[in-house]
TrEMBL record:
GO terms for molecular function: 3-dehydro-L-gulonate 2-dehydrogenase activity. This is 3-dehydro-L-gulonate 2-dehydrogenase. It is an enzyme of class 1 (oxidoreductase). Its EC number is 1.1.1.130. The gene is yiaK. The keyword Oxidoreductase applies. Keywords: Oxidoreductase.
Amino acid sequence: MRKTYQELHLAFEKVLLKHKFTPQKANDIATIFSNNSCDGVYSHGLNRFPVFIDYLKKGFIDKDAEPTLTNSFGVIEQWNGNLGPGVLNAQFAMNRAIGLAKENGMACIALKNTNHWMRGGTYGWQAAEAGCIGINFTNTIAIMPPWGAKEPALGNNPLIIAVPRKEGHIVLDMAMSQFSYGKLQEQELKDQQLSYYGGYDQNGELSKDPKAIRETQRTLPAGMWKGSGLALMLDILASILSGGNTTAAISKTQKEMAISQVFICFDAEKFDGKDAIIEEILKFTKSAKPIDKANVRYPGEETLRVRNENLEKGIPVDEKMWEKLISL
């Protein structure tokens, strides 16, 4: 199925208003979920929306909460998300980082007691659109085994790095697991195997079966021991800088809530010659001879292509997930 952007946005907004969000918050949240699906990140758009509503019903998300400042020193600020909607808290934190960066050249906003931000890349694109270099990351509940272990003790702790560019922003958005759980769900809904090994099955064998990997929770760290180590370091940084919960503390509740996040910005306009540097790097990268019919792309290039296609043809939606949305 394909739905227009307006149809999807309206359906999200209708459900949010039904659950007593203010019109402004309903519009803002619906926009973020719609943009995620429009950009091809269906796992954190339509497919994730029912989970958001479920968390709201269970009281994990306080729809009326607003972030509050808890500490400030120089270009660094610590904020408490007060368990408000994670997408709005993250949007606020990145906006604050952008504002401070425009004043001082750079800024770091650390956020504790917040909720899932859905697609972390949303806030990288937000920074790039404002002419800023953005770096943001989060910790999560334990859903990935450390390298050499059989059970989860790390979050998949997504890391986003965004650089503004007139011809199309460069945005890296990666979980520390080879495939995010959202991507596993998306492939499972399509009844498709993964393109590469994504984790281990019940027999301890490397597998491309998304359902088997979701059941064991033995996702493969991106870069194996390197991804495992980076996930640990991101948890340490997010927890120290925000003064918030670690993956260990979050996992004790067995609910992904009250997590810690960091948003860093640099005002790209203050750096001379950045455009020439970017083009030199991209030109050199794309000059590499591809394997067979592979397409050498920079991070974010495919997102722009998918966005334009979906705006023109309509956004692909899973029929079961669409019916679930309507039923909410």
